[in-house]
Each structure stands twice: as structure tokens, then as C-alpha cells.
Automatic annotation (TrEMBL):
Pfam family, one: SBP_bac_6
Organism in which the protein naturally occurs: Cellulosimicrobium cellulans F16
Name this polypeptide is given: ABC transporter substrate-binding protein
Origin superkingdom: Bacteria
InterPro entries attached to this UniProt entry: ThiB-like (IPR005948)
GO BP of this protein: thiamine transport
Gene Ontology CC annotations of this record: outer membrane-bounded periplasmic space
Molecular function GO terms recorded: thiamine binding; thiamine pyrophosphate binding
Keyword Signal annotated: yes
Keywords: Signal
Signal peptide from the UniProt entry: 1-28
């Protein structure tokens, strides 16, 4: 699914400037197929480079145009879906890839992409120390571009009107007073959904997380395939018109649901429910334009793109020297102690955990 409507944007795009940012993706999302590379691709000085990404990628027109002018490249986009769908498609098409570059593989799927051989080694020059610190595998196949905390978000007005105290913890979400109030995304199809599953593994351990999800199911949790439906269709807060005041989103989402005077946010993130998500870019193996792909990865970690990340994708730039927007310290903080699962455990048990989750919650 390509990003062509407001519903395909992340929760962080819901306030001032949202209409403008929709226009920023005026590029036609085209397949890498026969056009990727073009006549000049082998020289690395022009032609088309195709970016395979998730349906929440965004960049300012002027930032992208400057890169295209400087590089001589034309950037096209393919967006096969959320982060989980993205990796699945890369694996299915690795012998004839959808494009040249991927952005949006996160730390919950990174090891799978590396193990399946969908990436070619490349480390961009001038990579910041903070971005390099998020290296996975051998550190030369994926480059960290942004990061954020996946957390449950709350609609303040709904709870105030209902006279019910807002939940705080994961345990609270399974209590009777929050029955039928939570919507989350499926970890088999959604990278935020997988991140939240991992948060519960980190919180309750391998012996307790399935019981926790059984409790959530009994308490009426709703599961949808992707973030867009959860936030825009089922969530009652922000621009949503749904019946559920608790939704799986990001800790940055409330920075984009401010009141008109900017003094408060209409939503909040429950920072005791979070898992940290890091998103990566990499050159695809068998790319038709590998030189252009390397230039595009360089661009994604450049100061110009990194400075654009908070306002466009509502994530933290991987380069921690980049200035953040006003208000992020108050309305978009990262969790002080997000739940963690060791990368090697994710790699070893991810598919097993997803199958167990499906049997517990969906089947």
C-alpha cells in the first residue's frame, strides 16, 4: 500500500502542518522493475534510484529536491506496507528486488533481513557515532536512520469525560475498567505490533507474557493489521473518530496533537509501556543501481535529512547532534526505561513468539 492519503501517515502527523506534509510525497511511487537504474545508473552519476520503504516514509519536498539536484538522481518509491510487510516482501523478491535501497527495516526484523541475504554491505561515510551505536549484525549492512518508542497512547478528553482514571502500566490495561478500550496492531503484520509484543516479553518474561495477552484478550483488546487503521479508524483521540481511547502508537505522537495555543496535548503516551524501535536503511542485494543506492543511503544519514526526520516522520534522528523541534522535551519524550529484549533472543524466538501470540489472541 502506497502512502496517498492521511490514513497512511503515522500518528505523529496529526496536527499543524499535517496537510502540508501530505503534499510532500507527490513523487509517484513506482516499482524498481524495468526503470530502476536507467541508462546512467552504472556510473552512479544519475538515473533512477528506487527506495523501497514502509507506508509512513516522508521527506520535505525541498530536502529531496536538493538531493536529486546535487546527485543527478531521480528518487522513486515503492511502499509495500508496514514494516513487517516490508521485510516479507524483500525476502520474497530478493533475487529480483523491488528497488535499490530499503528504508524502514527496524530492530525487530533487522536480523531476519540480514540472515535472509537481502542486503549488500555498505557503510556511509561520516556516520555519526550515535547512529553507529545502533549497529546490528556485522554493522555494515544496515545503517540506523531514526528511532522512537512504541507505546500505548491515551485520549485525555475521553477519560476526563468518562470519569475514569487513565491507565499507567501494562498491568492496568488488563483491568476491568479498561475493558474494550484498547486497540493494538498485529505483530505478524506490523512492526509497532511486534515491538509491543516484545515490550510484553521484556516486562513479563517468557513464562508470563502469554498469560498477560490472554488477559488482554479477555478484556476486549482489538487487533488490526496496521497502524493507520488503529490510529485513524479505531482511536477516539486526535483526528480519529473511533470508540477506543487507548491505541498503540509512539511516544512522539502527542507532540502532534497539541491544542490550538500549543500549551497542552490532547493525547499522551504511557511511558511505562514502551519498546524502543530503531529504523534502518541499506543497499539491496542485486540492486540495479548500487552506486545510486549508496548515494541515497548517504543522504538518509546526512544532516539535511536527519534534521527533517522529526517534522516529517515524527521520530528521533539517529544523529543525536541534530536539534529537535520545540516542545519535544515536554510532549515527545523518550521513555527513561523502555522494556528490552536482547537482539539475539528476538532473532531466535521472533517467529515462535508470533505464532504463540496468534494462538493466544487471534485464533
Amino acid at each position: 500500500m502506497q502512502r496517498t492519503t492521511a490514513r497512511t501517515r503515522r500518528a505523529r502527523s496529526l496536527v499543524t502542518g499535517a496537510g502540508t506534509t501530505l503534499a510532500l510525497l507527490a513523487l509517484a511511487a513506482c516499482g524498481g522493475g524495468d526503470t530502476a537504474g536507467g541508462d546512467d545508473a552504472s556510473s552512479g552519476t544519475g538515473g533512477t534510484v528506487t527506495l523501497v520503504t514502509h507506508d509512513s516514509f516522508a521527506v520535505s519536498d525541498e530536502v529531496l529536491a536538493a538531493f536529486e539536484e546535487e546527485s543527478g538522481l531521480t528518487v522513486e518509491q515503492v511502499a509495500p506496507g508496514d514494516g513487517g510487510a516490508l521485510v516479507n516482501q524483500l525476502i520474497l523478491t530478493k533475487d529480483s528486488p523491488l528497488g535499490d535501497v530499503v528504508f524502514g527495516i527496524d530492530n525487530t526484523f533487522a536480523s531476519r533481513a540480514i540472515d535472509e541475504g537481502v542486503l549488500a554491505p555498505y557503510t556511509p561515510e561520516g556516520l555519526s557515532d550515535s547512529a553507529a551505536s545502533y549497529a546490528v549484525g556485522d554493522g555494515d549492512e544496515l545503517t540506523a536512520v531514526d528511532l522512537g518508542d512504541v507505546c500505548v497512547n491515551v485520549d485525555h478528553a475521553w477519560f476526563a469525560d468518562a470519569g475514569i482514571p487513565e491507565p499507567v502500566s501494562l498491568e492496568d490495561l488488563a483491568k476491568p475498567e479498561y475493558e474494550d478500550l484498547l486497540v493494538v496492531t498485529n505483530p505478524a503484520t506490523s512492526s509497532p505490533g511486534l515491538a509491543f509484543l516484545l515490550a510484553t516479553v521484556g516486562a513479563f518474561g517468557e513464562d508470563g507474557w502469554e498469560d498477560y495477552w490472554a488477559d488482554l484478550r479477555a478484556n476486549g483488546v482489538k487487533v488490526v493489521d496496521g497502524w493507520s487503521d488503529a490510529y485513524y479508524v479505531d482511536f477516539s483521540g486526535s483526528e480519529g473518530a473511533g470508540p477506543r481511547p487507548l491505541v498503540l502508537s509512539y511516544s512522539t505522537s502527542p507532540a502532534f496533537t497539541l491544542t490550538e495555543d500549543g500549551s497542552a496535548s490532547t493525547t499522551g503516551a504511557l511511558l511505562d509501556t514502551c519498546f524502543r524501535q530503531v529504523e534502518y536503511a541499506g543497499v539491496l542485494a542485486n540492486a540495479k543501481n548500487p552506486e545510486g543506492a549508496q548515494q541515497l543511503v548517504d543522504f538518509l544519514v546526512s544532516e539535511a535529512f536527519q534534521a527533517d526526520v522529526p517534522g516529517q516522520m515524527y521520530m528521533y534522528p539517529a544523529d543525536d547532534s541534530v536539534a529537535l523541534p520545540d516542545g519535544w522535551a515536554e510532549f515527545a519524550p523518550l521513555a527513561e526505561e523502555p522494556f528490552e529484549v536482547a537482539p539475539e533472543d528476538v532473532s531466535a524466538h521472533r517467529d515462535e513468539w508470533i505464532k504463540a501470540w496468534t494462538a493466544t489472541v487471534v485464533d
